[in-house]
Amino acid sequence: MRIAIAQILHESNTFSNRKTTVDSFKDYEWNYGEDIVETHCGVRNYLGGMIDKGNELDVELIPTFSTYCNPSGTITKQTYERLKDELIKGIQSKPNLDAICIALHGGGVTENHEDLEGALLKDLRNVIGYDMPIIVTLDLHGNLTETMVEAATALLGVNHYPHTDTYDRGKEAIDLTVKIVRGEVLPKMSLVQLPLLIFPTTTYQSPAKDVNQLCWEKEKEKDVIDCTFFHGFARSDTAITGSSILSITNNNIKKAKRISEDVAREVWQLRKKFVHNHPSPENGIVQALETEDYPVVINETADNPGSGAPGDGTFLLEALLKKNIPGTCFGFMYDPSVVELAHRNGIGSTINVDLGGKTDSQHGEPLPVKAYVKSLTDGEFIQTSPMSKGATVKLGKSVRLQIGNVDVIVCSTKSQTLDEQIFLLHGIDVNQYKIVALKSSQHFRAAFQPIAQKIITVDSQGISTSNAFYYNYKKIQRPIYPLDKSCTFEV
To answer: According to the 3-state scheme, what is the secondary structure of 358-401?
Structure first.
């Protein structure tokens, strides 16, 4: 059995002022053929799971094309055409395929397509036809569409946020693909979309945890292959933005429809519990100081690079520098120009710089600081978080600056902080610090929740804020909750 594998991942924040280009993708990954296997073998992500399950089942996996980019702005039209061409060309060049297994996101937006994934799958179908099975893995932050459902044989979304189950979904995708090719199952999918915006909500806690439990109960029913709660990506201003439920059965569309509707009704009943009211950076610091034990992790959700924000926002850092509390570290800020100056001057030097605030004015102004250069690194390490464990992370030239009592790590590549490795790389043991500040919404929890005495999410203005009313939505379908409190939902 010959199964082609591929990957194109992007979560598009349409409120970003930076377009996403081919070079944006190449900054992270742009691989063909066996380089894909070399990069992802042993890594706990989608492709790593596909590779391991393929080896376990002794099927021939045919790696074609793989790319991903850190969440960022809308993808340019030219970039979409290149992604489409690489995907289709890679698959067309492999003869005698039995099926295709693709890792996509579900939240991609291009200048010419609000539904990147639906457009890619449809364009692929126009070339290969509808006989060959196409099985797709998706992020739970996907804004799902009927176009995706019609073009794919099966869509499998991750259940957990942080996404610690991408590897498991990759394995399931290959397992399901083999069963489909053998004629053992015939997937039937039913999608129910809700008029509901959900901002980052961890599945470690209610209400998302409760919905997952309901989905898993439904999966115990006869002939049910999968039931997934997709939170959607609310930082995308499109007509398809919103949360949804997707159920898959073995040749029983009525049951799939009934299950999706049942779960959707439950989600709607819980809608008020998905609305967050996080403290400001200043109030978050006060709460941290009221906690006797340490470390206390303060995560800045409004400037989360993992949701397309610039990563150089200064609201939380400014508040920390004003407090100047001993035992405070921040990992990390994105500011290549500051890093370059620090590397030129060397360890032990003192530099005067304007730190952060260079991408736009929404996330705070640059901070004029006098900083001591404590350590310099290449920003490279192996990820130890349960999420994508084993992946090689390359954050480019990096520096640890001491600004008063605050240790600040600054990197040259934009990313959210997923584990403690970026701190350790610069000589910081987070377990010895009172306050550990970072930029992320939920993914950091996979590594930090076991060691943190308390986690405090702070919010402010910014293009990854959890305040729905901050965004100037123009294309989103109305009414939608929580923007429209009187919004109703029936199935």
So the answer is: CCCCCCCCCEEEEEEEEEEECCEEECCCCCCCCCEEECCCEEEE
